Amino acid sequence: MPQALDPDSPTRPLIGVSACSQQVPGRHPAFAVGEKYVRAVSEGAGGIPLVIPALGDALPPDQLVNALDGLLLTGSPSNIEPHHYQGLPSAPDTLHDPRRDATTLPLIRAAIAAGVPILGLCRGFQEMNVAFGGTLHQKLHETGQYQEHREDKELPLDEQYRQGHLVRIAKGGVLAGIWPASDTVPVNSLHEQGIKDLAPGLVVEATAEDGLVEAFSIANARSFALAVQWHPEWQWQPGVSANEFPFYRALLESFGEACLARRRERTHPN
Fold it and tell me: Residue 72: which of 94, 96, 55, 51 has the closest Cα?
């Protein structure tokens, strides 16, 4: 298991954190990111978080990634607009965030091209698949192929984020290198959508018991490039959550180590 990064180090990597575009009731439009993601970067990955607003074309992705040591793609209540993967129109009650789509999809491609370490979580996992040509099931529970992957939103948050099902980790992959302790591990499950077709160049790193792809890496990426359907940002902190899970902590630490390596290469290229 990787060693925890020092949060007081003067060489902490600068890690971008994707934000959503939201209309706060009764207030001005806002860009928002959950505190759990910011703390996962700051404390779990040992980085300095930089919130990336959903500005779309107004945010030049190539210029941004050249200044970053890493990129964390967050989860969100919204879903990717299906025209990005030639999907059917969404159900009328589906929440979308077109400004986030316009920001993250080109940003993902730019980050991989520039060799920036990237970790995608939940919506971020789905964004990485779509960015490279993959498709999504919009409602897994209506396919008749998969177990229930949604959370019970009537429960307290800690219960919503409890371990929901097992995933099987692919042998010899990136995830197996991060967590060699076992080839099966429980994860939380809080998603309605999921991968239908995996994009070319992506490698399956873990699957659920029902066969759904739950983690993948990018085959020819120059650095850390991993995405998971679950939420490791919630239960990684020792002593904070009753369900604290070393597996999640190992994911964040491995990402942080890759970001630190990127920073050292950027600041001391010789």
Answer: 51
pTM value is 0.93
Active-site option among 81, 214, 233, 257? 233
- Say if residue 81's pLDDT is above 90: yes
* Angle, CA of 148, 166 and 194, to the nearest 5°: 45
> With contact defined as beta carbons under 8 Å apart, do 131 and 105 qualify?
yes
The DSSP 8-state label assigned to residue 172 in this structure reads T
Query: Which member of 231, 253, 257, 259 is catalytic?
Result: 231
Tens-place pLDDT, residues 168-227 = 999 999 999 999 999 999 999 999 999 999 999 999 999 999 999 999 999 999 999 999
| CA 185 – CA 30 distance, rounded (Å) | 37
Check pLDDT > 70 for residue 249.
Answer: yes
Instruction: Say which DSSP state 13 is in.
Output: P
Question: 151 an active-site residue?
Answer: no
Q: How many CA atoms lie within 13 A of 241 on its CB side?
A: 21
